[in-house]
């Protein structure tokens, strides 16, 4: 027992343990030290985007939405809307608005994508909200017939009541309207479903999973770009309203004109 105890207290054992601890510490430091500058750089970039976004916001947006995004009588609160809402509104030209009205129409874009990202970073710092979707979230899968069929069913169930079954848009009460989805960027369609701009309800991931939103985007893009008109003139694909109006104006007008022309050439009319 005495010999075993002496071996455990041998000074070399403590030295070996110390050397092993120093080597392990050095190895761990060498492995993890390079990540710290990258993290600091990323944090600095995020802070820089927020600061630049705040400058842009104060120079152009605060007059309607308030100095801190709290909203006012001229514009809603932006706290919690997220960067996705900013990207949709700014990169479709809806914001900034030219004048107050029932709805912000699509128009030429004022800001660059970089400026939009900076504005989004600042708005996101005011409160948690939907982030800008990744490209793979809305990338089209045109050859995936199962996804296209699912997207068509989802679109007819959730969207066609306002946007028309072919995505041509439609009128809403009080001067509002559902905009046309023709030639709309897939990213912006996805962001609209995610954030619910203006009169549109939102479809967050808890209500509509990302796969279903992607299916709708794929379907809309295929219908509005590649769907033919086998019956001839599409008439805006607005259904019986536009078709009936066409018949009344041109069809009935042609019959009236033909009746007048025939009556003017009867023998009785010529004797007069």
Written overview of the protein:
The protein is mostly helical. It folds into four domains: 2-33; 39-126, Orthogonal Bundle (Cytochrome Bc1 Complex, Chain D, domain 2); 138-237, Cytochrome c-like domain (Cytochrome Bc1 Complex, Chain D, domain 2); 246-271. The chain is built from 13 helices and two strands; from the N terminus they run αααααααααββαααα. It has helices spanning 2-8, 11-32, 35-60, 62-65, 82-91, 113-126, 135-138, 145-158, 160-163, 186-195, 210-226, 240-264, 267-271; strands at residues 170-171, 177-178. Strands 1-2 form a two-stranded antiparallel sheet. The longest helix is centred in the first third of the chain and has 26 residues, at 35-60. Residues 35-39 have low confidence and may be disordered. This is Cytochrome bc1 complex cytochrome c subunit. GO terms for molecular function: heme binding; iron ion binding; quinol-cytochrome-c reductase activity. Pfam families: Cytochrom_C (PF00034), Cytochrome_CBB3 (PF13442). Its main location: membrane.
Keywords for this structure?
2 strands, elongated, mainly alpha, Cytochrome Bc1 Complex, Chain D, domain 2
Strand and helix map with partners:
Layout: H1 2-8, H2 11-32, H3 35-60, H4 62-65, H5 82-91, H6 113-126, H7 135-138, H8 145-158, H9 160-163, E1 170-171, E2 177-178, H10 186-195, H11 210-226, H12 240-264, H13 267-271
Antiparallel strand pairs: 1-2
Compute the number of strand runs: 2
Write down the domain tally: 4
Give the oligomeric state: single chain
Biggest sheet features: 2 strands, antiparallel
- What's the shape? elongated
User: How would you write the strand order of the largest sheet?
Assistant: 1-2
CATH topology (fold) name of the largest domain: Cytochrome Bc1 Complex, Chain D, domain 2
CATH homology superfamily of the largest domain: Cytochrome c-like domain
Helix/strand class: mainly alpha
Helix coverage percent: 55-70%
Tally of contiguous helical segments: 13
Query: What share of residues are in beta strands?
Result: under 5%
The CA-CA distance between the termini, in Å, is 146 Å
How large is the radius of gyration?
32 Å
**H-E string:** HHHHHHHHHEEHHHH
Subcellular location: Cell membrane
Keywords: Cell membrane, Electron transport, Heme, Iron, Membrane, Metal-binding, Repeat, Respiratory chain, Signal, Translocase, Transmembrane, Transmembrane helix, Transport
Binding site for heme c 2: 159, 162-163
Transmembrane segments: 245-264
């Amino acid at each position: 027992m005495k010999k075993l105890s002496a071996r455990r207290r041998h000074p070399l054992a403590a030295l070996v343990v110390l050397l092993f601890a120093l080597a392990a510490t050095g190895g761990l430091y060498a492995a993890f030290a390079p990540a710290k500058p990258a993290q600091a750089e990323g944090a600095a970039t995020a802070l820089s985007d927020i600061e630049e976004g705040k400058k842009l916001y104060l120079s152009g947006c605060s007059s309607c939405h308030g100095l801190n995004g709290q909203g006012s009588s001229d514009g809603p609160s932006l706290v919690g809307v997220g960067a996705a809402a900013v990207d949709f509104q700014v990169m479709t030209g809806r914001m900034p608005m030219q004048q107050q009205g029932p709805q912000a129409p699509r128009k030429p874009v004022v800001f660059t994508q970089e400026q939009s990202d900076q504005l989004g970073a600042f708005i996101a710092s005011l409160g948690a909200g939907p982030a800008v979707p990744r490209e793979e979230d809305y990338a089209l899968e045109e050859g995936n017939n199962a996804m296209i069929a699912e997207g068509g069913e989802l679109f007819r169930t959730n969207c066609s009541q306002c946007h028309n079954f072919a995505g041509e848009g439609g009128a809403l009460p009080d001067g509002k309207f559902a905009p046309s989805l023709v030639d709309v960027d897939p990213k912006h369609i996805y962001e609209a479903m995610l954030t619910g701009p203006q009169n549109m309800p939102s479809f967050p991931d808890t209500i509509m999973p990302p796969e279903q939103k992607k299916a709708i985007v794929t379907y809309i893009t295929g219908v509005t770009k590649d769907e033919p008109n086998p019956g001839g003139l599409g008439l805006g694909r607005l259904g019986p309203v536009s078709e009936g109006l066409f018949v009344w104006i041109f069809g009935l007008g042609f019959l009236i004109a033909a009746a007048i022309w025939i009556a003017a050439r009867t023998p009785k009319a010529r004797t007069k």
